Amino acid sequence: MSIKRREFLKIAGYGLAGTILSITGGVFVGRGSEILKGLERVSSTKVKWAMVIDSRAFKSESDFEVVISACHKAHNVPDIPDKNREVKWIWKDTFMRGFPSAETRFISEDIKKRPFLLLCNHCDNPPCVRVCPVKATFKREDGIVMQDMHRCIGCKFCMAGCPYGARNYNFYPPREYLKALNPEFPTRTLGVVEKCIFCYHRLDEGLLPYCVEASQGKMYFGNLADPNSEVRRVISENIIMVRKPELGTNPKVFYII
Amino acid sequence: MVEKALKGGVWYWLWLLLLLSFIGLAFYFWHSEHQYGAGVITGLHRDLTWGFHIGQLAFFVGVAASAVMIVLPYYFHNYKEFGRITILAEFLAVGAVIIAMLSVFVVMGQPSRVFYVLLHPTPNSIIFWDLVVLSTYLFLNLLCGWTVLHSEYKGTSYPSWLKPFIYWAILWGPSIHIVTAFLLQGLPGRHYWFTAIMAPRFLASAFSAGPALLIFLALLLKKVANFNVGEKAIQTITKIVIYAFIINLLFLLFEIFTAFYSGIHSHMAPFLYLFFGYEGHREWVPVMWGSLLLGIVGLLILLVPSLRRRETTLTLGALSIFLSVWIEKGITLMVGGFTPNVFETVTPYKPSFPEVMIALGVWSVGFLVVTILYKITLSVYESKNLAVKLKG
Fold it and tell me: Is the confidence at residue B33, as pLDDT, over 60?
């Protein structure tokens, strides 16, 4: 019995050490170092990545196009002609479709007609993560909702769970619909789900997500847990909307209206 | 006992051959889906990712769960009239669970990875629990049905060690269907499913459709195989169907009251789409009314004592209720859950021909198992009757 207890304590000790390591090492070291500069002052808070999209700044077709193609090209997102079964990580949609529960009868024509960039909200309380039977989609400690295309069994439960239509199932062999291949990023296979991953690989290198970089200041990205971060500043200084707040998913993509 | 499945007439083998050819065809289409993609083979799309097959899951889990309505009175309340039909109910449950589990398997985009569900158990996902409860229920029904039949074969009563398993199966029956309802009713933003009454309504519709199918099968066996489960058993089951279906209709009314009295648009929208059309889309309106009409006609037939005692009208009534629930749960439940979609617009869905063929193959696997199990059951009872005759 005593040996068993000793073993148990040993295992528990490793577990504790591992947890501390992953919290400190995994979250505070090496990720998005550029943005993290400001974080050193608030080291007791964790990182919660968030995005703010200034919907007023997106005017022309090309404003959207550069952002979308920067993401899609870099991530080998296939260009599928069948619009009901396409794959898109970030896309342009109408206000009415993006914010269907918003009061729209008396709002200005400008907002009613304004196109919006939609993408995965990286919810703080993500239903997709809750329903995935194999942990193929999971939430990192910095809040990014990840998708493991090699774990995914293609059950599509997450797509029933996501209230934002942000998830894509590969209805067609994705490699056949690639115009150009980026060898730096993996391609996908038939029958798996994929979506925006908040460019976690870029953050790890200290870079901004592709879309944010390509938007040239129309999108903000940073740490929501840091009260002095730029995202917190723009959120507090502007009129902000998130998609379907009534569902309690706590989206981390904010829209300046 | 298994050897009894190997002796049969021409019709028996032709029936098995037909089922096997459906399975072969389904395998072909299922295989093509993994070659060319679900976009080519199925009618599913971005806004409706669970269609006809998950509908079959919901429906056939119900058929499996409904065995409890026969098993409970027989074993727990010692209702002797259900002696013969109980084994039929248990074996039907075996086939129905197989159909349910295969219906989920065929929607997997990566079928070779499906064992990850056990390799990486994820208790927060209802699919994990569904797999656990369904495979347990499959095992329990196979064990209980087979052991009881084997005792019948030997001319003894079933062993006492089976009792705990029988009670376990009785508790398990409703839970498999509750868990299946939980797959749907806890999803934020799917208004049609987001209702606490989903699980009870699942049970009510299952306890009407499942026994209705059992009535049909029992009458069929009486006609083609001269196997009589007894008039009283059938009449009691008919009453179970009636009560359960009335409760099911009441639950539908409660749903409609809540959606329309509250006036919350998003809750009304799926009902509007299904029953009246929405934003110019009326794809499922005739189907929905058809289902409701079938249900009411079936209920009226069964409610009239003289009609439910006549075998032709009883069959008609039972089949109407079965079909009504099948349409509602097997098809429109999925359509309504995903339409209007998360953008509150309509992307119509129609199951494709290969999709239906794959489902036909899945049903065939279930009915193949049921046929073989029923064949063994019938042969056991037949040889027993023969023995009684010889003794007499």
Answer: yes
For strands A145-147 and A137-139, give the pairing. Answer: antiparallel
Question: How many contacts, defined by CB atoms under 8 Å, are there between A and B?
Answer: 144
Does the pLDDT at position B153 exceed 80?
yes
Distance from CA of A46 to the nearest CA of B (A): 24
Task: State yes or no: pLDDT of A63 exceeds 60.
Answer: yes
pLDDT digits (tens, 9 = 90+) for B36-77: 999 999 999 999 999 999 999 999 999 999 999 999 999 999
What is the rounded CA–CA span in Å between residue A202 and residue A176?
26
CA neighbours closer than 13 Å in the CB half-sphere of residue A35:
30
A191, B37: Cβ pair inside 8 Å? yes
Going through chain A in order, the beta strands assigned E by DSSP cover 49-54, 90-94, 115-119, 137-139, 145-147, 168-169, 193-194, 219-223, 240-241, 253-256
Q: Which residue has the tokens 């300046």?
A: A256
Query: In sequence order, what are the residues at sequence separation of 6 or more whose Cβ sits closer than 8 angstroms to the Cβ of residue B346?
Result: B273, B278, B279, B281, B339, B340
Give per-residue pLDDT as tens, B108-150.
999 999 999 999 999 999 999 999 999 999 999 999 999 999 9
Contact B340, A97 (CB under 8 A): no
Name which of A124, A130, A120, A165 is nearest A143 in CA terms: A124
Give tens-digit pLDDT for B79-88. Answer: 999 988 999 9
Could you tell me which of B55, B106, B61 has the C-alpha nearest to residue B287?
B55
Residue B392 confidence (pLDDT): 59
Q: ipTM of the assembly?
A: 0.90
Whole-number Å distance between alpha carbons of B89 and B68: 8
- pLDDT averaged over chain A? 86
Quote the tokens at residue A91: 């896309």
The alpha carbon of residue A240 is apart from the nearest alpha carbon of chain B, in Å, by: 20
> Do the chains contact at A154 and B189, CB–CB below 8 Å?
no
Nearest to A127 by CA among A89, A160, A88: A160
